[in-house]
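Tokens in:
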């Protein structure tokens, strides 16, 4: 069967033909991860994309331990309440797809659709029909969200390879997530004075499905989604179907997964991938006021501009000099303090250390 390509599609694919053959779907695959380890799940998702057969359609079902997941082009210092996140022990991971910051926990489930073309609303409509089949009526938004009573229960992000020949679309779905904790660890775009071209998250009013449908559980949703995924693509054709599960042990022993894990687990990826930025912080101390403008590239302090109401100009120079060239991180500040010269270890500096450690 032939379909006429739109001019927009021709421009995107640089195709000079006016028609293209609809690819035949030969297999449908549903994979469920039994691991709740976010590093393993996100790494597995990435390896699946690179091995995806474009004649198939694949759905990955997964769930994570408490995790903050950043979009590829976001600034971790602007998006995350880092002191709160460290205190709670929540994971912080940067994914490969764009978009905003999301929170995963045991009350949230995740779906990833692997397709050869970018088709977000097709995928959302599958979820929409699945939820309707278990009594949950939701609407889609222009931002590729799912809304329950005008409140967000699902967000989306995408990754595309090979001129749109390999795509994934992953979605969250809030069933009974800890929304108060979500609010405490995710920052709004205006909470920190950070200047950057990084992608800012768009905060929305969210809700859980269980607020209005208390008896709907994750197994109900996984089952309904699996059914409607197959119904959507089977369409009377002779299509092979497979269902499989992967365990944490499977993923730990998978060399390709472990290679991606090593990247996702690195400081250079999670923090250093943040686009170039400048953050300005100020504080009033017992001896006066201090303002620091910290310029960072790849998470490294490239310039530190300090001004104080203190009469001793050497204090400004000392602060600037000890931070330049260092990682903008709590561990870096602790290391600097440990090896600081004796003359900057007095009460004045103790106040500065405590302030910086409570901020980064």
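Residues out:
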């Amino acid at each position: 069967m032939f379909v006429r390509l739109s001019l927009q599609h021709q421009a995107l694919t640089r195709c000079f033909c006016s028609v293209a053959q609809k690819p035949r779907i030969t297999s449908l695959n549903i994979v469920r991860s039994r691991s709740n380890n976010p590093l393993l799940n996100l790494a597995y998702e990435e390896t699946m994309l690179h091995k995806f057969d474009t004649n198939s359609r694949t759905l990955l079902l997964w769930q994570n331990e408490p995790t903050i997941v950043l979009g590829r082009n976001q600034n971790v210092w602007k998006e995350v309440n880092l002191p709160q996140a460290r205190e709670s022990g929540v994971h912080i991971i940067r994914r490969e797809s764009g978009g905003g910051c999301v929170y995963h926990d045991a009350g949230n489930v995740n779906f990833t659709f692997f397709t050869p073309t970018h088709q977000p609303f097709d995928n959302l409509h599958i979820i929409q029909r699945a939820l309707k089949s278990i009594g949950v009526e939701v609407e889609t938004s222009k931002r590729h969200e799912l809304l329950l009573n005008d409140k967000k229960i699902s967000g989306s992000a995408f990754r595309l390879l090979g001129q749109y020949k390999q795509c994934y679309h992953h979605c969250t779905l809030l069933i009974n997530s800890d929304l108060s904790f979500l609010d405490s660890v995710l920052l709004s775009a205006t909470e920190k004075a950070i200047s950057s071209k990084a992608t800012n998250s768009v905060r929305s009013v969210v809700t859980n499905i269980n607020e209005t449908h208390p008896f709907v559980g994750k197994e109900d949703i996984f089952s309904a989604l699996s059914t409607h995924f197959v119904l959507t693509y089977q369409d009377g054709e002779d299509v092979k179907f497979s269902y499989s599960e992967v365990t944490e042990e499977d993923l730990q022993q998978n060399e390709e997964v472990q290679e991606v894990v090593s990247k996702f687990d690195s400081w250079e990826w999670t923090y250093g991938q943040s686009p170039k930025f400048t953050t300005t912080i100020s504080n009033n101390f017992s001896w006066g006021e201090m303002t620091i403008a910290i310029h960072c590239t790849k998470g490294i302090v490239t310039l530190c501009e300090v001004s104080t109401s203190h009469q001793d100009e050497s204090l400004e120079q000392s602060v600037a000099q000890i931070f330049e060239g260092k990682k903008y991180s709590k561990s870096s500040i602790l290391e600097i303090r440990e090896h600081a010269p004796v003359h900057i270890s007095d009460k004045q500096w103790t106040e500065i250390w405590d302030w910086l450690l409570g901020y980064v």
